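step=encode ok
step=design start
structure_in=
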């Protein structure tokens, strides 16, 4: 068993650490933040897509493209298209949107999601990790029949071909019976697609609770080094020997037998220091978390409101509301106009929502054109790996990728 150094304490790095510890490895996680899950994993809107999951690149993108490029979608944009990498990435996304590619990517994602679900259930049987888990199901609500039918057909076809769980098309009456809290949209919503097998759970809570559990339980076998930036690597042409770090106390090196890059959208930058291209682009998004009194009459399911690109994830005492997909935007700014727009759209759906006490989260989804995460060895080196590029689905896929990465390390000798 070896000493594994993981760069990045998002949900991907932390769940990976847990699987490695259980397999008997010594693990050090290093993160530039003061605790885990303060990147994309903290901004997450909580949906666990267990059966139905689709890549970002899909045929409908071609029709949406002109309005996206013309900047007509306030919460969906492609930034800095003068940058060669962004143009290349955009072209790659269009290629992955071809019907055959979409179906292939969707099948791969569904397979990963289904395996992740099983692994999460197994883990739940052996360990309680706080995350406010609930089997909520997911509703995708539509304001026009054409999109409702197209979405249902799309997923029904996938159901036949990939053998996923049972989905349902709900007409207006069935929708409002299922979700009375949507009554304010009575004159607009035409129906919904219902995915009964999807769950909700708080990704940040889960990741932070799991980090605490590992610190308490694994003694010297586990180290979590916070407030420390990885600046580079030391090694020879075949092997990485150490990472170089920088923090308030200065610079140092941390040695290990294996090194996993799980740094979210920053994985590209770090991989470049090893001379490797991992073409991840950030897609920035926001989630606002609005508290309310327990027992408040609100949504029962996770609701995706298509007309507004809004996802609403209700808990007993709060609701997380997410929107924004700004491809290529890598800054940490919280844009007030975007937050106001999310609030306006949320108010259209839940007019009584009181935003005082609201918390704002922002994160960058680490996106690859295929939407399939890279979980692999870096071929140039015998002991360096990537576990990143989970895009819109890192929470849903983290357990699958942790198991896969642990398997890769188990069969390799440092
Ligand atoms: C608004 C929003 C909603 C989402 N909703 C969902 C959802 O409902 N369901 C779902 O499955 N997924 C969802 N996602 C996607 C999911 O959150 C991401 O795929 C996932 O969090 C990626 O996890 P990660 O660990 O790879 O990255 P991150 O969580 O970003 O973690 C990477 C870590 O690496 C650290 N790091 C980076 N560079 C360095 C360095 N040089 N040195 C040290 N540390 C470094 C960062 O500080 C960070 O902590 C959503 C994402 C967003 C933004």
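sequence_out=
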């Amino acid at each position: 068993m070896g000493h594994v150094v993981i760069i990045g304490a998002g949900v991907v790095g932390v769940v990976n650490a847990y699987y490695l510890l259980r397999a008997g490895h010594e693990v050090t996680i290093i993160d530039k933040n003061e605790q885990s899950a303060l990147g994309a994993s903290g901004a997450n809107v909580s949906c666990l897509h267990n059966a139905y999951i689709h890549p970002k690149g899909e045929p409908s993108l071609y029709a949406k493209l002109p309005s996206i490029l013309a900047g007509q979608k306030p919460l969906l944009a492609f930034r800095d298209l003068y940058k060669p990498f962004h143009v290349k990435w955009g072209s790659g996304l269009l290629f992955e949107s071809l019907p055959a590619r979409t179906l292939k990517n969707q099948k791969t994602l569904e397979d990963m999601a289904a395996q992740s679900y099983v692994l999460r259930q197994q883990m739940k049987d052996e360990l309680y990790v706080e995350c406010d888990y609930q089997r909520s199901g997911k509703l995708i609500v539509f304001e026009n029949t054409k999109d409702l039918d197209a979405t249902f057909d799309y997923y029904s076809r996938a159901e036949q071909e990939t053998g996923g769980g049972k989905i349902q098309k709900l007409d207006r009456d069935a929708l409002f019976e299922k979700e009375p809290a949507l009554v304010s949209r009575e004159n607009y919503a035409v129906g919904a697609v219902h995915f009964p097998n999807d769950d909700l759970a708080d990704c940040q809570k889960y990741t932070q609770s799991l980090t605490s559990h590992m610190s308490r339980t694994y003694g010297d076998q586990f180290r979590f080094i916070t407030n420390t930036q990885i600046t580079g690597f030391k090694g020879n042409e075949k092997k990485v020997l150490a990472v170089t770090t920088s923090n308030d106390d200065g610079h140092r090196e941390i040695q290990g037998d294996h090194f996993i890059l799980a740094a979210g959208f920053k994985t590209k930058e770090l991989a470049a220091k090893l001379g490797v291209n991992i073409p991840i682009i950030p897609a920035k998004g926001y989630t606002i978390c609005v508290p309310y009194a327990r027992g408040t009459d609100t949504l029962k399911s996770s609701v995706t409101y298509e007309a507004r690109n809004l996802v609403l994830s209700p808990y007993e005492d709060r609701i997380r509301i997410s929107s924004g997909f700004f491809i290529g935007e890598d800054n940490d700014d919280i844009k007030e106009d975007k937050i106001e727009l999310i609030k306006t759209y949320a108010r259209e759906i839940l007019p009584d929502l009181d935003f005082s006490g609201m918390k704002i989260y922002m994160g960058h989804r680490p996106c690859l054109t295929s939407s399939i995460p890279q979980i692999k060895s870096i071929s140039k080196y015998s002991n360096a790996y990537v576990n990143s590029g989970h895009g819109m689905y890192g929470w849903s896929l983290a357990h699958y990728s942790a198991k896969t990465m642990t398997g890769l390390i188990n069969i390799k000798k440092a």
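step=design ok
step=annotate ok -> The first helix runs from residue 11 to 22.
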